[in-house]
């Protein structure tokens, strides 16, 4: 119940704006064929940005136990290109939103979530979103 309430408040007080920003970045990436890996990552993280409480972003390598194209060397190169072209702007948006949330006492949990999302803008390729209750490793 607390997650649901947190997600509703988050969505109404700014989560929708940053989620749409991620979706816009994804749409811009989809314009070119070469941008499709970034577009997929944008839509996954954008959906996460709409309702983040009770979920977390983790590396796909932590889930599967092995590298794939997004968690290996190509993913690193893709994340560097991503951050220079788009990621810095999303990070600034999340940081400004975090500062606005930290101004109020009740907004502190939301500010912390914006900081987590700002970190995700560093390397969204190779990330996936899971429920917080799900184990992060493969045995």
Automatic annotation (TrEMBL):
InterPro entries, per the entry: Inner_membrane_protein, UCP028777, YccF
Domain Inner membrane component, chain residue ranges per copy: 5-55, 77-127
Keyword Membrane attached: yes
Membrane topology type: Multi-pass membrane protein
Compartment annotation: Cell inner membrane
Keyword Cell inner membrane: yes
Segments crossing the lipid bilayer: 7-25, 31-51, 72-89, 95-112
Coiled-coil residues: none
Keywords: Cell inner membrane, Cell membrane, Membrane, Transmembrane, Transmembrane helix
Pfam families: YccF
PANTHER family: INNER MEMBRANE PROTEIN YCCF
Protein name: Inner membrane protein YccF
Organism: Marinobacterium alkalitolerans
């Amino acid at each position: 119940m607390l997650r649901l309430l947190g997600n509703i408040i988050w969505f109404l007080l700014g989560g929708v704006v940053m989620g749409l920003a991620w979706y816009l970045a994804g749409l811009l990436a989809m314009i070119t064929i070469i941008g499709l890996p970034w577009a997929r990552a944008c839509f996954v993280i954008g959906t996460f940005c709409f309702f983040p409480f009770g979920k977390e972003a983790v590396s796909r390598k932590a889930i599967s136990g092995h590298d794939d194209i997004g968690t290996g060397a190509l993913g690193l190169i893709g994340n560097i290109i991503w951050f220079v072209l788009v990621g810095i702007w999303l990070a600034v948006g999340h940081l400004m939103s975090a500062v606005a949330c930290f101004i109020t006492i009740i907004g502190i949990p939301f500010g912390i979530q914006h900081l987590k999302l700002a970190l995700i803008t560093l390397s969204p390729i190779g990330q996936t979103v899971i429920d917080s209750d799900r184990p992060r490793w493969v045995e």
